[in-house]
Every structure is written in C-alpha cells, then in structure tokens.
C-alpha cells in the first residue's frame, strides 16, 4: 500500500493544486470567482464546484466551510472524491446522502486512475481499522460489518495557503472540530500545522511522520462508546510559511446504520449521553451546520438555523445559496 500512498501523494503537490499556480482550472479563473449567478444546471460549473454538485463532489473554494463556531471561514480549499456511483444506480435513486458520480478534470491524465486506486486501498484499510476497534472493545472482529457495508466515504485533497501575516481574529486553515463519521485516515505533507486538543486543554502539535497516517476517531465512535473513546478535537494552523497539502479519507459508514451506545461501554446504572441516530442523519446535520456557518458569515443565509434540524437541511442550504 505504501507504493500507492506515495503515488497518490506525489500526485497531490504536483497536480492536486488544481493548477491554481496558473489561476485556471478547466479554463475558469478560480480565485475570487463570482459564482452567485451560476446555477446547478450549468454543466461546466458543476464539473468544478462541489457546492453546485448534487453529490458534493469536485472543487470547494477557500472559505467554503466553517468548521469552528464563531470563527471565520476556513482558510483551505479542496477537491472532493467519493465512491463512483452512476446517476441511475439504485442507491442513488433511493436518495442516499453524498452519493453520485465524481467530477474528473479532463486535463490531468492519470489523475482519476491514481485517485481511485488510492481510494480502494483506503476503503480496505478503514474496514480493517473498524475490526481493530471492535476487538479493542471486547467484541467480535466483525461486529461493525453492517456499518462497513456500502459506507459513506470521502477522499478530500486539501490545500492550505500560508497563514496571512495579519489574519482575521480566529482565522485558521481549518477550525477546531471533530470529524463526523467513524474514523479518518490522514496523510499529510512535511509542513505540519495539525494540532490536537490534549486532556489538559492545551493544543498539541501532531508532526508529520514519514510513511504513516494520523488516525482520528470520529463522532460515531464517541456515540457508540459513550465517550469511552472520544472523537478527536483538532484544527489546522499553517504557520509553515509555505503551501500545505493533506489527503484525509473519511470512513463514515452505511447511511441507514443506527448508532446507539454499546452495552459493553455503559457502567452499571449509566445512561447513554447521546440519543440514537443514523449515520445519514448525523452527517446531514453536521454538513448543514458547518456549511451554514460560512454562508451566515457571508450574509447569504441569515435565517437558516431553524432549518438545520429539518430533513434535507444541507440540500436546503445549497438551494438557498444558489437560487
């Protein structure tokens, strides 16, 4: 797998910068591009902007998401890839969240093959790690097999520009947050910037380790274990003075799978801290919350908070933003 990892990451700094060095991508100028008047029926724009894609695939510009409540939009941009599913696939017709075809740049030969090879390796690794988590809890290794069946996943190719000399108050490459799904496997370049909150309330640097991943436990693990295993609060502040690249792979589980506290993680008389939920409901809620923050800061969706709990909240945000 290491060979594939290196191939994928070699593609990252060289080509995953989306040719921003030339300020173009598919012939469009990306930085500061005004897309307010574009619609989701514009095929060319759909091939670029994840926010115009029904499946949340493609390019997300700087400030497209705000992961930390009360902070400015995140100082990062990315290209989002998921399971390749055709528009006529039964799972897509059933309306599952974040499923659909990817949008591949035509001017990057070999990019799709490299990324989907890496995607397949990470999918298998995610299943293996979930088996390890089950065994660590005294469960059978295949306990999470249903969770791992047809899982929601996302491979995100992220670029963090250098932190400005005079940043906005609270501005970060990626605001403090926990990941939403089951586990996250992060490959990062040599420039650092990832920080994890320690038990003493201090932020700890997570320096890059050659040929190794950072693995974050995410929200589903907290809910299952009633915080015996905690979702990792983390952030990114790029103080390297140069560009930072990372490739997180988010393994979030089967959309319909119910997540409820495990009996083995509850002491006698202890009650669950979290109500039962499904993977899809939690993912929709968290996407709605973090993308609404960016729009609220920009003044685009001032009345959306009351809609966040409604079914399809994330879809409502996208429709409101680009109506």
Molecular structure report:
This protein is an alpha+beta fold. The protein has a single domain (2-321), classed as Sandwich (Jelly Rolls). The protein contains seven helices and twelve strands. Strands 1-2-3-10-5-8 form a six-stranded antiparallel sheet, sandwiched between helices. The protein has a four-stranded antiparallel sheet with strand order 4-9-6-7, with no helix packed on it. A two-stranded antiparallel sheet has the order 11-12. β6 and β7 (203-205) form a beta hairpin. α1 (2-16) crosses α4 and α6 packs parallel to α7 (313-321). Residues 1-42 and 293-323 have low confidence and may be disordered.
Q: What low-confidence regions span 5 or more consecutive residues with pLDDT below 50?
A: 1-42, 293-323
CATH class: Mainly Beta
- Tell me roughly what share of residues is in helical segments: 25-40%
Radius of gyration over all CA atoms, rounded: 19 Å
As for the number of domains, it is 1
How far apart are the termini? 44 Å
CATH topology: Jelly Rolls
Q: What's the story with the biggest beta sheet?
A: 6 strands, antiparallel
* Largest sheet strand order: 1-2-3-10-5-8
What is the overall pLDDT average? 75
Q: Figure out the total of helices.
A: 7
Architecture per CATH nomenclature, i.e. the level-2 architecture: Sandwich
Q: What amount of the residues lies in strands?
A: 15-25%
Helix-strand category: alpha+beta
């Amino acid at each position: 797998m290491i060979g594939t990892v290196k191939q994928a990451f070699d593609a990252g700094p060289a080509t995953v910068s989306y040719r921003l060095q030339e300020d173009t991508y598919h012939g469009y100028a990306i930085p500061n591009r005004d897309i307010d008047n574009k619609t989701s029926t514009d095929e060319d724009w759909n091939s670029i902007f994840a926010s115009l894609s029904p499946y949340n695939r493609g390019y997300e510009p700087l400030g497209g998401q705000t992961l930390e409540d009360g902070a400015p939009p995140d100082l990062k941009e990315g290209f989002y890839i998921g399971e390749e599913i055709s528009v006529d696939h039964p799972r897509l017709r059933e309306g599952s969240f974040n499923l659909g075809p990817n949008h591949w740049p035509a001017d990057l030969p070999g990019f799709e093959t490299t990324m989907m090879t890496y995607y397949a390796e990470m999918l298998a690794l995610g299943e293996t790690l979930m088996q390890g988590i089950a065994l660590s809890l005294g469960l059978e290794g295949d306990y999470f097999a249903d969770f791992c069946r047809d899982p929601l996943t996302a491979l995100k190719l992220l670029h963090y520009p250098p932190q400005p000399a005079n940043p906005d108050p609270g501005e970060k490459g990626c605001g403090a947050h926990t990941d939403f799904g089951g586990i996250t496997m992060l490959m990062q370049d040599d420039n650092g910037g990832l920080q994890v909150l320690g038990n003493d309330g201090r932020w700890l640097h997570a320096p890059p380790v050659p040929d190794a991943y950072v693995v974050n436990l995410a929200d589903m693990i907290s809910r299952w274990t009633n915080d015996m295993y905690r979702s990792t609060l983390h952030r990114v502040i790029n103080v390297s003075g140069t560009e930072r690249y990372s490739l997180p792979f988010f393994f979030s589980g089967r959309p319909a799978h119910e997540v409820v506290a495990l009996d083995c993680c509850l002491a006698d008389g202890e009650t669950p801290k979290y109500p039962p939920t499904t993977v899809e409901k939690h993912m929709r809620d968290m996407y709605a919350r973090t993308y609404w923050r960016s729009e609220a800061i920009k003044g685009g969706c001032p009345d959306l908070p009351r809609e966040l709990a409604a079914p399809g909240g994330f879809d409502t945000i996208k429709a409101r933003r680009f109506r």
